[in-house]
Amino acid sequence: MKHRNFKTVPKMIFGRGAFDQLDDVLMVERKSADDYVVFLVDEIHKDKPLAGRIPQQDGDMLIWLDVTDEPKTKYVDALTEQVQAYAKAHKNGKDPVSVIGLGGGSSLDIGKAVALLLNNPGGAASYQGWDLIKNPAVHHVGIPTISGTGAEASRTTVLTGPDKKLGMNSDYTVFDQIIMDPDLIAGVPKNQWFYTGMDCYIHNVEALEGTYINEFARAFGEKSMALCHQVFLEDHPESDEKLMMASYMGGQSIAYSQVGACHALSYGLSYVLGYHHGIGNCIAFNVLEDFYPEGVATFRKMVAKHNIDLPKNIMKDVTEAQMEKMIRTSQGLAPLWDNVYGPSWKEKVTPELLRGLFSRM
Amino acid sequence: MKHRNFKTVPKMIFGRGAFDQLDDVLMVERKSADDYVVFLVDEIHKDKPLAGRIPQQDGDMLIWLDVTDEPKTKYVDALTEQVQAYAKAHKNGKDPVSVIGLGGGSSLDIGKAVALLLNNPGGAASYQGWDLIKNPAVHHVGIPTISGTGAEASRTTVLTGPDKKLGMNSDYTVFDQIIMDPDLIAGVPKNQWFYTGMDCYIHNVEALEGTYINEFARAFGEKSMALCHQVFLEDHPESDEKLMMASYMGGQSIAYSQVGACHALSYGLSYVLGYHHGIGNCIAFNVLEDFYPEGVATFRKMVAKHNIDLPKNIMKDVTEAQMEKMIRTSQGLAPLWDNVYGPSWKEKVTPELLRGLFSRM
Predict the structure, then answer these.
(1) Alcohol dehydrogenase iron-type/glycerol dehydrogenase GldA domain: from which residue to which, for each copy (chains A, B) (predicted)?
(2) Which of A96, A132, B15, B161 could staple B125 via S-S, CB 3.0–4.6 A?
């Protein structure tokens, strides 16, 4: 049996105010006068003080990202072409020396994807899968402004393509540098803070109760879980710091574990009905008390404590065709179900089971 | 205030049997027919089954390490010259494509040091300190066969030089790859297992109670501590796995924390009386109940549970000159005392205080 050779983010800065060290980080990459960097920033920050703190120099490129929808392969292809056109017109075709993703999970994933696609031709859809990327990415930096997805730590960039929602999973996907500045996640709107944080919490439940886990993943997952409890049940004074660490450690734990039933259902919700990942997870998790009794009970306490109105009856206008597509999408996620049930999952994950779960959402 | 840009091991394999994946790891580095690697292996493994599993190929170099004493600058210089002489005679001066350190903390540190010194001329003593290394190291791999030092995760290689015991601290020091195979630490002799594990435990106490810590280091330190409790108080069935993770996470926590009073005293013991780091820490920690009341109480439970005979009255034959040298060595470790007391440490860490503590050992 072979164990994964886990590629992790090799450099990180953690601490309040660390965002201001981005300039120093980029100075190391800027080696000649016409070197430039590309900032890919969630447009939510456009008129905020953070925008004025971006260390943009003459010749750098800044693109405001539209993350209304989760990242599509089409969108990251268009962004890559935009960078390439800029390079051709202004820089004799020279690639940027660094690509910075600044924002939530979508912005981080877009940063990873563009850095990869600049060096790997043919469009994002052709790389959805595992280890299909051939060439190293351009140097890329991730800076979360909301925590919970684990995107800052992971080797994937989740994309919705023409025929599937699936990441570009590769060692080259991993950021070269992350900056974890708890100041940046202070003041995120309550619902988004909660749904994104729950991505981490739910992932920990699925990983810790799954069949794939080993003691490396367990150590990270258990600590991430304990931090989630402090943040979402105890109002800990260092909640920003702790949530940021929970997200990072949750991401690390995925090295030797896997998500489970909730993510399998949630992928179906996102792909067919367009729900964002965080809220989709919460909707799905809330019907999984048979799978994760303790995890769901604690989750409901967190929902109640923070007065979150989970969407209900979301299936009432869903067509039979949509339902079948959701079931198919969910059922197709073999490793996730394998992590839940072990190799016998195929007998257990029937369309009836999935229809029953979706119908209760 | 600037936060450290923490360089971490970028690739790791964790799991029982992972040692056998070393061959695959090295195959990636072996790009041409005359490429070779250097194995630096604790000689304790010489006649053990592990020796037969080292993936040595024609042209590779294997050196059995004498770690009777902790690594000296003189010794790593001699090893480096030995590799260079081999390179000159057999490989037209070509450096190895990888250096593998296999063993305990000393062997790992020697692996790091030789990989650095092959690319940085002038001898190890000239690089003892912080960020003095100019050039990246040769690719280097760390494989612990005993756990607790955190050497697998750290950016230092602790060396005893002509006038100090001090590491070569540098981003280049960090391993390119580690392999954490819990099989390798099964069957370590009891005392050594305990003393080395306590290095991790004690370091966690010092870090968690210190002034330097932030929430990144706290998350890693607390989990490492919880794992130490499972291993040393609860005889957990997955003790090998958990101790290995405790060591790794303890090493990670040092990114944003510092050791304290125990390591300061223990450095004095090692430098003047030659005690190995692990046992030196235990001897020193046992007199620090005023500094770390809870930590020392738990430590004594662990000592009792495992029937460890801590050396006592070790100062009875020490000369006044030796005592003064220990005091001077210990007092000189400014960042450690700063971590204990904050900036006012100079008023508090008097020769009398240190003499009192050493005298009780």
Answers:
(1) 11-182
(2) B161
Strand order in the sheet with A177-180: A61-65, A37-42, A98-103, A140-144, A177-180, A11-14, B5-7
Structural domain of A154: 11-185
Could you say which of A8, A17, A242 has the minimum Cβ distance to residue B215? A242
> Same domain, yes or no, for B240 and B151?
no
pLDDT band of residue B304 (cuts 50, 70, 90) is: very high
Mean pLDDT of the B226-245 span: 96
Whether A164 and A144 map to the same domain: the answer is yes
Closest chain B CA to residue A230: B219
The answer to whether position A1 is within a domain reads no
pLDDT of residue B101: 98
Q: Name the helix (H) or strand (E) containing B285.
A: helix B277-285
Give the nearest partner residue to A245 out of B4, B219, B238, using CB atoms: B219
- Note whether B256 contacts A214, CB cutoff 8 Å: no
One domain, residues A24 and A129: yes
Tell me if A6 is assigned to some domain: no
Per DSSP, which regions of B104-235 are E strands? 129-130, 140-144, 158-160, 165-169, 177-180
Q: Which residues of A touch B3 (CB under 8 A)?
A: 13-15, 17-18, 21
Q: What is the structure's pLDDT at A166?
A: 86
Q: Out of A139, A160, A185, pick the residue that ends a domain.
A: A185
**Which of B143, B159, B185 is a domain's end point?**
B185
Same domain, B227 and B351: yes
Considering the domain architecture, whether residues B200 and B180 belong to the same structural domain is answered as no
pTM of structure? 0.96
Claim to verify: residue A78 and residue A43 sit in the same structural domain: yes
- Does residue B328 have a pLDDT over 70? yes
Q: Which amino acid is at B56?
A: Q
Number of domains making up chain A:
2
Using CB atoms, pick whichever of A10, A216, A256 lies closest to residue B10. Answer: A10
Domain assignment present for A300: yes
Residue B1 belongs to some domain of the structure: no
With b meaning 16 or more CB within 10 Å and e meaning fewer, what string describes B290-307?
ebbeebbebbeebbeeee
In sequence order, the β-bridge partners of residue B168 are: B129
Q: Which of A22, A25, A215, A240 to substitute to test the interface with B, most B CBs within 10 Å? A: A215
* CATH number of the domain enclosing A154: 3.40.50.1970
Please tell me the predicted confidence (pLDDT) of residue B166: 86
Question: Which chain A residues touch B13 with a CB distance below 8 Å?
Answer: 3-6
Q: How far is CA A291 from the centre of its chain?
A: 23
Here the CATH number for the domain that contains residue B235 is: 1.20.1090.10
- Chain B, nearest residue to A13 by Cα: B5
Question: Which pLDDT does position B110 carry in this prediction?
Answer: 98
Q: What is the mean pLDDT of chain A?
A: 96
Give the residue numbers in A contacting B (CB under 8 Å), as ranges. Answer: 1-15, 17-18, 21, 24-25, 177, 180, 182, 214-216, 219-220, 222-223, 227, 238, 241-242, 244-245, 249, 255-256
Determine the 3-state secondary structure of A94 from DSSP: coil
Q: Is there a contact between B13 and A7 if contact means CB atoms under 8 Å apart?
A: no
The predicted complex's ipTM stands at 0.95
Tell me what the mean pLDDT of segment B167-192 comes to. Answer: 95
Per-residue confidence at B163, pLDDT binned at 50, 70, 90? confident
**Pick from A3, A8, A249: CB nearest B21:** A3
- What six digits make up the tokens of B62? 């294997």
* Test mutation, A3, A231, A245, chain B, max B CBs within 10 A: A3
Calculate how close chain B gets to A228, using CA atoms only, in Å.
12
Would the CB atoms of B21 and A8 count as touching at under 8 Å?
no
The model's confidence at residue B1, banded by pLDDT at 50, 70 and 90, is low
Average pLDDT over residues B168-194: 96
Q: Report the length, in residues, of chain B.
A: 361
Q: Give the closest residue to A268 by CA, choosing from A349, A207, A322, A194.
A: A322
CA atoms within 13 A on the CB side of A10: 18
